[in-house]
């Protein structure tokens, strides 16, 4: 007899629900390849699997002759290679099961390649779902409330740009997710014996290295981690060695890739850009005025002001390449406008710093430094995305403060002021969720650079007429979840594989006991 209550109360039940729900949402929201922004990463994955090489000479079509690097007379991806490497098993599996798949929905440019791309992009969906699981577990570590932890993870997954970019093939949400997985292992290590802590810190270090492999520009997190480890009295010095050992494998892989592709240990693929040659000059990368950029990236709800982009007006060729003029036309939402729930989350950091000083400062340092570095970026609006994609790590870190506000309200007696605060939090959460959904709905069409796959103008008018409601709801649904036609593959292939891995890692004793009983 199955005991439903026991299953629901199992400590791994909610994490599994989160993982399945967010993987399904992100996977269903993809259209496969869109343009050169994700195509460069995909071309490297193809090269690694098909030709066992770092060169993308045979797969240049996915770069649209824009986003690629040139070194030693060969073409390479202009993106950091980590995500492309992580996608190898998913691309291999996609090639073998695509005959069971359907084309993602779309009226234009959907083809067989779109199927394999959509199945490969589950890489991001799975990693980002695991990241939100780690976000939930980290929240639970701090406030001990499943409801609050679940609510905050739900907002983080759908009420930010995580939704839009986790359904694509981009390094920012993947880096953010790996960062939170490493945080979680780092924090929970304190609860274990000395020998177990060695393994957990090794794992945390390895995931930090993978996150840097995914995004070289985040190497600044390393000294912050080490500062935390050294200053934390609960972590013995010899344990730091195990954290460092975890870094080694993927740091060596970074070095190997850089030397093989660019003959330079410290290479950055952007420094070898063949089309955007201005990126080869380091001083060109950070040309935005810091203060005005911070105000824009935090609070803007209008097109970017022209005075912030003075570098581009002095360099019209670069302005044309990067679509700077469009940045002054499209509405640009700062992180507090895109996800207004952050307004309350920030207030929670006062409590966070008081109760968990070292851990809060570790997170805050990474969040603020990421904010400052990306605010200085010349193209801080993420190319033709025109949004705060680069600030995702900061957004998720800031959002953690919400658990302390919610926890404080949960413990107090309900009064009129609390009702008012609950109503405000509810409204801000709804706005955040709407913005997260709208960003996903209006993401790019497949294989067409810069064109939205849906706009509200496509709805039948009048929108709420009884004869049009059914059609309009279907249009909104299918453009939000264009890959819903392949959802069966999650349950046929991906989730069973994930469950087997889960059993092997977390339920070894149970498996051993089952087999030992069977032998008897």
Automatic annotation (TrEMBL):
Q: Which residues cross the membrane?
A: 12-29, 115-136, 148-166, 172-188, 200-228, 240-260, 281-300, 329-350, 362-384, 390-407, 419-437, 484-505
Would you tell me the protein name for this molecule? Answer: Glycosyltransferase RgtA/B/C/D-like domain-containing protein
This protein's record includes keyword Transmembrane helix: yes
Per UniProt, which keywords does this protein have? Answer: Membrane, Transmembrane, Transmembrane helix
**Top-down, what is the taxonomic lineage of the species of origin?**
Bacteria, Candidatus Gottesmaniibacteriota
Answer whether the UniProt record assigns the keyword Transmembrane to this protein. yes
């Amino acid at each position: 007899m199955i005991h439903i209550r026991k299953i629901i109360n199992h400590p791994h039940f909610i994490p599994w629900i989160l993982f399945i729900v967010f993987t399904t949402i992100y996977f269903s929201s993809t259209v496969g390849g869109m343009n050169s922004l994700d195509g460069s990463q995909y071309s490297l994955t193809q090269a690694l699997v098909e030709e066992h090489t770092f060169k993308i000479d045979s797969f240049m079509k996915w770069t649209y002759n824009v986003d690629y690097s040139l070194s030693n007379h060969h073409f390479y991806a202009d993106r950091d290679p980590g995500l492309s490497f992580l996608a190898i098993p998913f691309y291999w599996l996609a090639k073998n099961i695509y005959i069971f798949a359907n084309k993602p929905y779309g009226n234009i440019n959907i083809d067989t390649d779109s199927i394999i791309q959509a199945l490969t992009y589950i890489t991001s969906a799975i990693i980002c779902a695991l990241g939100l699981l780690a976000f939930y577990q980290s929240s639970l570590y701090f406030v001990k409330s499943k409801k609050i932890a679940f609510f905050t993870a739900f907002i983080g997954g759908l009420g930010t740009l995580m939704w839009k970019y986790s359904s694509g093939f981009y390094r920012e949400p993947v880096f953010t997710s790996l960062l939170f997985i490493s945080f979680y292992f780092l924090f929970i290590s304190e609860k274990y014996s000395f020998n177990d802590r060695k393994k957990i810190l090794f794992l945390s270090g390895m995931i930090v290295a993978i996150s840097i492999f995914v995004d070289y520009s985040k190497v600044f997190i390393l000294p912050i981690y080490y500062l935390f480890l050294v200053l934390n009295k609960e972590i013995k010095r010899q344990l730091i060695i195990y954290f460092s050992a975890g870094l080694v494998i993927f740091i060596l892989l970074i070095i190997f890739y850089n030397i093989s592709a660019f003959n330079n240990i410290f290479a950055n693929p952007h420094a070898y850009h063949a089309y955007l040659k201005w990126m080869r000059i380091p001083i060109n990368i950070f040309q935005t005025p810091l203060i005005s950029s911070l105000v824009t990236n935090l609070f803007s709800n209008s097109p970017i002001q022209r005075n912030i982009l003075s570098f581009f007006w002095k360099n019209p060729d670069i302005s044309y390449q990067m679509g700077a003029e469009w940045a002054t036309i499209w509405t640009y939402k700062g992180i507090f406008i895109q996800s207004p729930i952050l307004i309350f989350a920030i207030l929670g950091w006062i409590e966070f710093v008081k109760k968990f000083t070292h851990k809060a400062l570790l997170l805050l340092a990474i969040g603020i430094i990421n904010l400052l570095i990306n605010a200085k970026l010349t193209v801080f609006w993420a190319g033709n995305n025109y949004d705060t994609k680069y600030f995702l790590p900061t957004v998720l870190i800031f959002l953690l403060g919400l658990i302390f506000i919610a926890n404080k309200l949960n413990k107090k007696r309900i009064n009129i002021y609390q009702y008012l605060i609950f109503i405000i939090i509810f409204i801000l959460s709804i706005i955040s969720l709407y913005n997260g959904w709208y960003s996903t709905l209006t993401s790019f069409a497949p294989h067409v650079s810069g064109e939205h796959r849906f706009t509200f103008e496509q709805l039948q008018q009048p929108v709420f007429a009884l004869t049009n409601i059914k059609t309009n709801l279907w249009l909104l649904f299918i453009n939000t979840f264009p890959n819903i036609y392949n959802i069966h593959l999650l349950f046929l292939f991906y989730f069973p594989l994930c469950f087997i891995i889960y059993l092997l890692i977390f339920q070894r004793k149970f498996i051993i006991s089952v087999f030992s009983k069977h032998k008897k």
